[in-house]
């Protein structure tokens, strides 16, 4: 049975106190944090590949403003990694800084949440909308694909660093934003069924998707303006989730399909790519124009069929038949499930295999 959120149920909206986007802003991290945080110890989490590239810049800036940085490396996106870090993080730390990609940011968010400390998000790639969101996805969460945490206290996104990241990661971020064309449709469907989802949060997610869709050429050129456009869209999606009190406006049937596909295949596929395939399906099921969407995304270099991702057709069909069971409490266009016959029909229709 689907449980609807009562219209009079309150929720708290927590937004970042400051968001900074631009070239070389990482060099000012000490100054930025000092405006908002007291204390002299901070924990910096980073990845093994990112640490030699940028950690010295971050720690030098922090020390210039009197902070004593404790640097640790995140090795896996698992809840067990958070538990390990809990035993090693100084009790006196005044904030947790996540310097890295999505895995580092998610581990950092959960660690900060458990420590009841503010989290500072410093992304080094623009691969998904977790940059500023109050959600975190880790392995080992008892079947849950994401958990609610606090919204990042500060977001510092260096467009120069992000433009230097592998282009595939940027394409993944584009895919995650474009997936909002689907999640917005599912959110409005849920509204019609009585679920409360704030209109503003839905509009913000939709605006982000349109912004990226209309500026694809500029974004894939990796120009500073293009990277800023993508970053602003990803950050806006995080804000939309904070306003909604859940991931609802940014996660619909396309995410359910993406998660189902992840469960079936052992291949490590970027999140933005799997939800992008799910968006084609969702648009078709909603009766929307998936053809123009697919053609323009394909022109931008985004994978628009399972073959491009190396996923066998049988997995695509199976994923669609049980995707609704990933979040049975969340109404989407998938309804109570898609039959095998219908799954094959829609997958053929949108040329997904």
Automatic annotation (TrEMBL):
Glycerol binds at residues 129, 176, 255, 271. GO terms for molecular function: metal ion binding; oxidoreductase activity, acting on CH-OH group of donors. The keyword NADP applies. It comes from Candidatus Marsarchaeota G2 archaeon OSP_D. This is Uncharacterized protein. GO terms for biological process: phospholipid biosynthetic process. Gene3D superfamilies: 3.40.50.1970, Dehydroquinate synthase-like - alpha domain. Binds 1 zinc ion per subunit. NAD(+) binds at residues 102-106, 124-127, 133. SUPFAM superfamilies: Dehydroquinate synthase-like. The keyword Lipid biosynthesis applies. Its cofactor is Zn(2+). Keywords: Cytoplasm, Lipid biosynthesis, Lipid metabolism, Metal-binding, NAD, NADP, Oxidoreductase, Phospholipid biosynthesis, Phospholipid metabolism, Zinc. InterPro entries: G1PDH, Glycerol_DH.
